[in-house]
Amino acid sequence: MSKTNRNKGHTLERRVAKLYQEIFTEANIRTSRYASRELDDKKVDLAGVPMFNVQCKATQHAPQKVLHEMPNDTNHNILHWKDTKQRGKHYVVLEEKDWLEIIQLLNNENII
Fold first, then answer.
1. CATH code for 3-108?
2. What is the pTM of this model?
């Protein structure tokens, strides 16, 4: 991996960590490189995000296997992907079952 690509990935991780920290103000959200080598080894880039395992990728092509490499636990696995080919468009990807569970929770709480 080139130094430029590594820097793009680290920059994306810090950006996404900041977004989650603004939402979960009581949580202590940090990059797993800093917080937990064990999480980093499990393909989780952000530590401390309630309910979610978060992976960040800044690539030209959609990462195909990332969600399947992440932990199979009670958290929802989420991929934040920055498409470097499409002028940095950002996408959030998760499995359909996780999406449906989140929608159901929102519906049960009368949020939607």
1. 3.40.1350
2. 0.85
CB pairs under 8 A, 24+ apart, for 36-42?
42/70, 42/71
- What sign for the dihedral angle of Cα 101, 105, 108, 112? negative
Domain range summary for the chain, segments of one domain joined by +: 3-108
Roughly how many angstroms between the first and final C-alpha of the chain, as a whole number?
A: 43
How far apart, in whole angstroms, are the C-alpha atoms of residue 112 and residue 110? Answer: 5
pLDDT tens for each residue of 34-76: 888 888 899 999 999 999 999 999 988 888 889 999 999 999 9
Pairwise CA distance, residues 8 & 2, whole Å: 10
Residue 24 CA to residue 22 CA, distance in Å, equals 6
Helix (H) and strand (E) counts in the chain: 5, 5
**Token pair 């793009």: residue:** 8
